[in-house]
Amino acid sequence: MGPFVIFINLNGFYILAHKQSPSVDMAKSKNHTTHNQSRKAHRNGIKKPRSQRYESLKGVDPKFMRNLRFAKKHNKKGLKTMRKAAKAAVPNTVPTTVQATK
């Protein structure tokens, strides 16, 4: 039962009286506490966030992104010529084995 209001009539005048039941009102509860939270957090250690291998390019300048795309595309052309030059420079040699003498 909650609090209720009583109107008492005394000689033509009404008096407002509040009646409160003691069993109804409960004590206020605690809103917040950080007790034990730090201990719990440190039990397994507070770890740093893992870094990404490639950072996101979201929100990067569109002009730069366009140039980056062309640069990546044309990097492959140079790779072919470098491989051909490397093959020509190194002759086909078979590794020789050294025989042990007794």
Secondary-structure topology with pairs:
Blueprint: E1 4-10, E2 13-19, H1 37-43, H2 62-89
Antiparallel strand pairs: 1-2
Low-confidence segments, given as residue ranges, are none
What is the number of E strands?
A: 2
Morphology call: elongated
The helical percent reads 25-40%
Instruction: Kindly report the average pLDDT value.
Output: 82
Write the element-wise H/E pattern from the N-terminal end onward: EEHH
Rg, alpha carbons:
42 Å
| Distance, first to last CA | 109 Å
Strand order of the largest sheet: 1-2
| Strand fraction | 5-15%
Main sheet properties: 2 strands, antiparallel
Structural class: alpha+beta
- SS field, number of helical segments: 2
Keywords:
single chain, 102 residues, alpha+beta
Protein model, in words:
The protein has 102 residues and is an alpha+beta fold. The chain has a domain at 60-86. 34% of the residues lie in helices and 14% in strands. Strands 1-2 form a two-stranded antiparallel sheet. Strand 1 and strand 2 (13-19) form a beta hairpin. The protein starts with a strand and ends in a 13-residue tail after the last helix.
